[in-house]
Structures are given as structure tokens and as C-alpha cells.
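call fold(seq) -> C-alpha cells
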Amino acid sequence: MEENKQNQVARIQDFDPPMKPKTNKYAIACTFLASLSSILLGYDIGVMSGAIIYIKKDLHISDVQVEILVGILNVYSLFGSAAAGRTSDWIGRRYTMVVAAGIFFAGALLMGFATTYAFLMFGRFVAGVGVGYALMVAPVYTAEVSPASSRGFLTSFPEVFINFGILMGYVSNVAFSKLPTHLSWRFMLGIGAVPSVFLAVSVLAMPESPRWLVMQGRLGDARRVLNKTSDSLQEAQLRLADIKQAAGIPETCNDDIVEVPKRPSGDNVWKELIFSPTPVVRHILITGVGIHFFQQASGIDAVVLYSPKIFEKAGIKSDHDRLLCTVAVGVVKTLFILVATFMLDRSGRRPLLLTSVGGMVASLVLLATGLTIIDHSEQKLVWAIVLCIAMVLAYVALFSIGMGPITWVYSSEIFPLRLRATGCSIGVAVNRVTSGVVSMTFLSLEKAITIGAAFFLYAALAAVAWVFFYTLMPETQGKTLEEMETLFGTFWNWRERARELKELKKTEKNSNDNGQIQMGTNNPAMQKPNIVV
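ret:
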């Protein structure tokens, strides 16, 4: 009798809606610590926007040298991101972050003690390599540790910390701006060594990526990490099964240490990605690289790096006042990236991205209009100055709520396991090259076609980006990393594939529900379920 009651309770509970999984605090802590590496890039971007004012005065360099100094770090970071994929596959994601921190620490000290332009450029090279390592490995690690239910939230952490680093750089500019010119910029750059120390220490508290552990044959260690970072033990088992399948390990193999089938060599990975990709891989590569290109081509680094110049063109002449305005930019950017982290797994990637980019187009057009009016006016137009400042703040807010975090979330989750490290490295390389081109040409572009026309150009590129995203990028919210391949391969016809998958899941769910009902009653025509309270 008692057994029948328990069965009836179980059957009634089967009809209850699934409970929303609790936030996994351990996974949050892991991604938080890993994302500290992104502060390195953010701080450098923010601090250079103000430090360059004093470097130009102290070292007496030209505008072209300023552009090169500001933007060259992005080019140098290519060496780091190119090496990071292979390094992270060799020594693991965790210790690759230590390498990134150590290299950036050395670069920050070299820049702080630089006495000549050439010395400063060498420091930029070393720091750039460290930034390249950090940019590649942090999103990969967070994607591989995060459970599917909160992967968007957690994988956006690197972008959150980039923004926090930018804000720290802006605050550093204001804090040291009152020092003598020859000391101010050196303190601004040298203090950047501090975050890298915290990063190196924090790695000691982090587990290794479960996917990397499986690729090394360490199933026992991977299982323990997944049990801690998943929403349930059942999810941990499913994640482990997916990773084993992707790594070519038999499903029945459950030893703690196993022999992993020989993986494709580096040449085969490049062949599969670039030279002879399948339609699925080609679609993934185009979207993964395209989103990185458009993130930077839409002009974000021009606004963030040269915001003092923009405010000067808008009519704010005092160095200190311009630096204070940049702090406002940093605060707005950081606040809105925090908003975005909580919306990614609720609203989905596509709605946020398309809204963000559409708003960026509008704000860039209005900013360009305001700057053009000020440029052609002989008197001070307060309304135009207010418009320019408001549009700079609106632009960075809209960027931070979609384009900024989703670039890193999306590109890190769509590549298959066997191609993920290399694919993300390519995306980061394109991101840094595009950023370098934008930051190393802005001043020359402003002189050649005016600052207003430059922002009209960025607005046009952002409009092209909106069309690209709308046409080619499927929604990935809630999908496991190993399910992504089913959404790609049809390019602009991906919506049809998504509808088919949705119908298939709906059919499977209905079949399962019908099976539960039949198993739960001996004679459905004669019996009604007894609800036990």
C-alpha cells in the first residue's frame, strides 16, 4: 500500500514543470578568476587614452607615432594569440593564464621605465604578447567550465573585466595627471603590472578545464570538475559523455585514466578549418571570425582610445576635464556590461546583438552629425557639445549591452571541441588586427576626411554588421557546446534547420510524456490519478 502511494506521488511529480537550476557558485568563482586576465587588455586600452597626452609632450612625438604607439599592441598581441591555442592544448588552459600574466607583468614594467620611444615600443611588444595570450584563453576556459544554463552569463565575464580594466585605466589617468609630465605617464603604464600579479595568484584556486582534462585522458579529474561546475549530477554525466564522444573515447570507458585516440595534428586542424572545411565548419568559421571583425570595425577602439580627442573636438579644452569625461565613459561602459551579463541567458544572443548594433548605428550617425556641425560652426554650440557627449555615452552603452560581450560568448561556444582552441585563436587574431587598423588610422583618417566623416564610416560598417548578423547567425542560447554543429551548415537557411530541430524536440517530449502516462496507470480508461498531498 505504502509503495503504491509512493509511486502515485512520483507519477504526479512527473507532471510538474522542471525546477529552474540554482546558480552554480563554484562555476561563477572559476570564471571570475579566469576572467581577471581580461583586465590586462582593458587597463592598457583605458590608460593609453590619457597617457598618450603626456607621452606626446614628454617624448615630442608626431601624430603618426602616437597612432602606432597606441595601436601597435593589437598587432603585437597576434604573436600571443597565435601561440596561445597550441600552448593551452599543451600545458592546459589554467597555466596558459599564468604565462599571460607573467609576460604582461614584464611588459608593464618595461613601459613604466621606458626612457625613449624605441624602449617604449619594446615594452608594448612584450605587453602585447601577454594580452594576446589572455584574450584567447579566458573565453575558451569559461565556455568549457560553464553549465549550459548560464553559459552566456558566465562567458561574458571576460568582456566585463575588459570594461572594468578600461575604467581602472581611466581612473589611473585622472589620479596621476597632476604629477610632472615625465612621471605621470610612467606611473600610469607601470601600475598595470599589479593586476597581472593577482591573476597569477588566483590561478592556484582554479580547476583545470574538464574538456582539456578529457583530451589528456584524465577522466577522473574531469568528472570531479564537472560534478562541481554542473547544475546537477545528471548534467555532469551528460556533459562528460558529450566531451568523450567529441574526443573519440568510447562511451563504455569510465576509468580514471584512459588512453585517448590520436587527435588530428595541427596541420589537419588547419586543413579542416581553412583549406577543406565542411559546410558546417565553413559556416562556423565565417560567423566566428565575422563577429570579431565587425566588433572592432564598428569603431569601438576609436571611441575608447581617442575619447579625449573626441571631447576636445567637441569643445572641451582642459586636459583634466577631458580625462574626467573619459571616466564617465568607463563608468557607463562597465554598468551596461553588467546589465548584459544578466540578460544573455534570458533574452538570447540574437535579440541583444541586433538591438545593440542597431542602436550603435543610430548613435554613431548622431555623433558624426554633431561633430560635423561643430566643425563647421564658428561659435560654441552647447547643444551640439551635449549631443556629442551623450552619443559617445550611448554608443559605449549600446556596445556593452550586446556587441561587446556576445562576440566573446558566441565565438567561444560555436567551434567543435577538436577545433575550438585554433578557431578561437583565429577569431582573436582577426579581432586584434582590425582593432590595430582602426586605432592606427583614426588620427590620419580624421585629418583626411574630418572626424565627422570618420564616424559616418564606422556607422556604415556597423550597418553592414547588422545585416551580417541577421542573415547568418543562428541563436545558440541553451544549446550544449557539442550541439552547436546541428545549427550550422546551411548559411542563410539556418532558420529552417532551427525549426526542424524545435519540432523534433517537441515530438520527442510528447512521446516521452505519453510514455510516462501509459506507464503510470494500469487502465487509463477506468482509473483516475490519486493525488497525495
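The chain is about 80% helix and 0% strand.
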